[in-house]
Amino acid sequence: MDRRSFLIKSGALISAATSSTLGFPAIIKTYNRKPTIRVLGTHVTLQETIRQRAEQDLGIHIEFYPGGDAEVLFKASTNPGSFDIYEQWSDSIKILRMADAIQPIEIKKLKYWEEINNLSKLGRLTEHAPIGQGDAPHKLLYIQADGSLGPEATQRISFLPYVHNTDSFGYNSGVISKGIPYETESWSWLLDERYAGKVAIVNAPTIGIFDLALAVQAQGLMTFKDISGMTREEIDALFEIVIDKKRRGHFRGVWTSVPHSIELMASGEMVIGSMFSPAVRQLIGRGIPCVYAAPKEGYRAWHGVMCLSRDCHDERKDAAYAFMNWWLSGWPGAFIARQGYYISNPERSRQFMSASEWDYWYAGKPAQEALKGINGAAVVRPGEVRTGGTYAKRFENVAIWNTVMDNHEYSLLKWNEFLLS
Amino acid sequence: MTHQRRNLLLIEDSYEHAELAMFYIAEYRQDIDIIHLPDGGSAMQYLESIRNGERPLPWLCLLDLKLPKYDGHEILSTIKDDEYLARIPVVVFTTSAASKDIQQAITKHANSFITKPMGADRYGMTIDSILKYWELNQHERI
Amino acid sequence: MTQFLINHFKLQQRINIGYILAGSVSVIIVILAALAFSSISNDYRSYISSSQKFHIDLLLTGQITDIHRQAMIYTYQGHPSAADQVMTGYENLLKQLDTDLQANPPKIQAFLDTIRPHLKNYYAVFLQVKKQRDTQQYLIRNDFRNHASTIETLIRDLTIQFSHSSDVNWQLESILNRLLSVERNLYRYLDILDSSYVAAAKEQLDEATAVLENIGRHNHAQQSLINQAIDKLERYRQSFNEVVQRTRGYLYLINVVMAAEAYEILYQSKKLSNLITEEMAVKERAISAHVEEILWILTVCCSVLLAIMALITDSIRRSIALPIARLANTFRALTGGSSQASIPAYPLNDEIGQLIHAASSFRDKNMETECLLQESLRLTRALESSHKTLEHTNEELEQVIHTVSHDLKSPLVTSMGFVSIMRKLADQGQYEQAVSRLDKITLSIGRMEQLINDLLDFSRVGRIDLNHKRIDMNALLYRFAQTHEENLNRIGFTLRIHPNLPVIHGNESRILQLFENILTNAVKYAPNEEQGARLEIGAIAYYDHSLIFCRDNGPGIEPAFQQKIFGLFYRLDNHAEGSGIGLAIVKKVMKIHGGDIWVESEPGKGACFWLKFPRSKTAEVS
Fold it and tell me: How many angstroms separate the CA of residue A406 from the nearest CA in chain C?
């Protein structure tokens, strides 16, 4: 399943969410000896295969409540009692914290904590690697003594880091000549006059704003004091540039879901734009030579997080911990690796992968055979190499981590202006 | 009347007629020498010799019209067209009485045109008359 | 064409055909023009309808922008009327879309179909926004305020309880201040939408809680009241959180989700607009191309039709005018009296055919007249000819008479003269002399007789021997030579007949007489025997004549006499025998044979008589 497959299937879903505000969860509980946990999250991780496997492995009942980014975040932030575990991105932590929706996680209850790599704990996989700007996971990981979040190691964490990946933009190499990863491929391409009218941006201000900012910065049109925490003035300047561009017809527009982005590129309305890994994979599968760029300025990375609801206690809390530990037990990591996602303790997942799978997905080596995806169909052709190289290489090139800025509300207003300019 | 002998040129193809003429001329005038030329050819030769001065101008010329070779008209022309010979008095003396002949002869300055008479004595008388008439002629010395 | 018309249609029909054709062509042109104009006007109507469609896009763009503006007004200012306007606008737009969906071509329908779900989604999200905002407002106005006043009451109660402790009172007062600050921060947040106010408010809430907890730790007596206050504070915090989250929620929905839907609608509208513009441009181009094409076709058709009409008209005109013009020429020629005037061929018995017929009668008449004229001319010529012949004959006759009178008189003159001489001699008694002259008279009379005989002979030529026939000169002269062979041999005269003599048409006895006379002359004037006299007779063909030459080696004839020798009784030598009739007869014989004779000679070089006979064609063939 796609991550954030439906960012905005908003109408109906939020309607459901809102109506459930009053009586959530609207599920008829089956009274059973087994404890039941409710998982709120996106389609990326809330997959039926995973649920069944977890139930089987853990002997508990698990209810999945998948939804779009904004939907689940809204639900979680306004009604902590509606879930036990929340699965989303590190950038939602601030909001959840602000909404007092989650409770700290005890490291001592985490079975595989020691195996979790430095990306999550220190913000980088290797020592020399730069730390991407914005809310790198480690900055939000530990609950400091004063109750705030910080990188200093403590015994309590705000979330369990697990699934993560790097994002960039995709382009149709049938139209745009193929660039060299990390050398010529650049976020500046998004604003290249040559592709005017065929550029689309993801309709998510917390993500799209960085795609635009990175592009503007790469074009040399402006610089940011802190790209991950833009001032209102910087936001104004950024939108002035992109709105001007938009008015001159530079953008096809925004896409609101992965299928929408696939459709836009497949129809030729878009030749370059924000893109998520599954869309790129599907486009290639459809014969469109979509290249997932490795921009020289670096990726926009994201980190998946699992949070405990403020209202999760006792038996359910134990089950929730069990579910969190299960996630790092190897099989789930191998499962999502086949969708192009990384797990925070890869070595444990390695035993659940074939050597060629590991080589392709993590080691950046050519696929020795056709690799199957989660639904059994081949998604990687023999000899294919994952763009961006190895796991380490990709995370050595993180320009920015997805971040909810302090001026989030303001950016929303500007986003509206951008869309309707 | 002179005592000199006179030459009379008789151009006449008919010997009989010539004999008649000569008979009467001889009868009437003994001082006339008759030079008989029987055809046009010999007449022309004689006239040529006169003109050359080989022979004297005749006193009179009796010219028949019907002649072998050159006829009388031609001879008349020869005589009258020549300044010297033209002085010869030419009496056309012919059997013809055709006005055509007369006209032509007069036009060519024949001095006389006389048709030969067919009466018993008239031939002699005609000759005599011609002679008499031309004896009256004074212009021979011109 | 012309010929076809002439062959198949009468004059009247041709003129009618011309009229019908001209009419048909006009009608066809009018029909073509009408078709063309109706086609163009269809195009134009279609274009106009396209341009009307153009308004759909403008309508969509305007309406969606308006709707969104109203939605924004509602969101930020909460005017219910704005929300109503969004609803009305949405419904109107949807209705409009449904109407347009039915009215427009599939291409545009497809666009409108694309737009519809976006619009519907937009409105659905707006309803969510409305709900969120209503909830938020509700929270602010009720929960939040109620909680605040409950806490305030509780704090007041506590203040009364702790009236003895100014320290606690101060702390409680600070809680109230903090709560006021939270409220202020919330309103600031809602006003400015800066999350730092939220953070500040939360900090103050935390502090208030901490203060209360602290009081509670030290004052167990008031624990329940304090716990009650803490609990209320927690509820207050929850309301606050929810207000913030709902605010964020609807902000997200309107700014991101609805804006995206609105943008998509605008984008599709723009695309539609582009499509329509393009379609219109295409139509415009098509119309102008069509107009041009139609004009071209019309021009070509009209030109072709007119050309055909002109051709046919010309043919008809020619089929009428040409024969008439020809006929006019013919008549001009005919009135000039021509019988050769060409009458144009004309197969039809129409009006022109009748004229042709008249012309042909005219020509026949002319021909008759001409025949008559020619006949009369011929007669005139014949008359003239016979007149000339008569004149000639008269002249000849006169000549003959003149000659005869001279030559016949001559013996008379001689006889009479000698009679006179004899009488004179007899008078003189010279009887012998007189008698001797008698011979002269006899001779004279004898000559006279000969003359008369000769004259008779001459006059006979051409008068009594008119039967002409084919004469092979070879045979004739062969016989002629045989006849004279003996005599000639005797006198040593050579007669040589050349071969290949012609065949002529003539009277045989006259021709023989002719050669006899020539031969006689040749013999008469032949030189003496030593020289070997001869006569050659041969022939050459000369154009359409046969030329027979008779060449002797006699003394020749001076040019001066070459004409005269053919005269009647003309002699070159008065010593020779004969009356001078021979060559006159020869000439007359030639004349009656339609030929001629002349002599070529130089004195001393013989003479050559040329006899020119007209070549007898029939004779030659045989």
Answer: 6
Q: What are phi and psi of B116, to 5 degrees?
A: -65, 130
Full domain range(s) for residue B49: 6-135
From first to last of the 421 residues of chain A, give the pLDDT tens digit: 344 443 333 333 333 333 333 333 334 444 446 789 999 998 888 889 999 999 999 989 999 998 877 778 888 888 888 999 999 888 888 888 888 889 999 999 999 999 999 998 988 888 888 888 888 889 899 999 888 888 999 999 999 999 999 999 999 999 999 999 999 999 999 999 999 999 999 988 888 999 999 999 999 999 999 998 899 999 999 999 999 999 998 999 898 888 889 999 999 999 999 998 888 888 888 888 999 999 999 999 999 999 999 999 888 999 999 999 999 999 999 999 988 899 999 999 999 999 999 999 999 999 999 888 877 777 888 888 888 889 999 999 999 998 888 888 899 889 999 988 8
Q: How far apart are CA C212 and CA C82, in angstroms?
A: 44
**Domains of chain C, residue spans:** 134-264, 461-621
Interface of C with B in 384-443 (CB under 8 A): 402-403, 405-407, 409-414, 416-421, 423-424, 440, 443
- Strand ranges inside A256-395, DSSP E: 272-275, 290-292, 299-309, 371-372, 378-380
Contact between chain A and chain B (3 or more Cβ pairs less than 8 Å apart): no
Alpha-carbon span A324 to A102, nearest angstrom:
15
The CATH number given to A10-165+302-347 is 3.40.190.10
Q: Within 10 Å of residue C194's Cβ, how many Cβ atoms? A: 18
Question: Could you give the number of structural domains in chain B?
Answer: 1
Q: What is the ipTM score, two decimals? A: 0.85
Q: Please say whether the dihedral angle defined by the alpha carbons of residues A160, A165, A166 and A172, taken in this order, is positive or negative.
A: negative
CATH 1.20.1440.210 at C134-264, yes or no: yes
Identify the DSSP state of C112.
Answer: H
Between chain A and chain C, the number of residue pairs with CB atoms below 8 A apart is 116
Tell me which residue in C411, C416, C444 faces B119 most closely, judged by beta carbons: C416
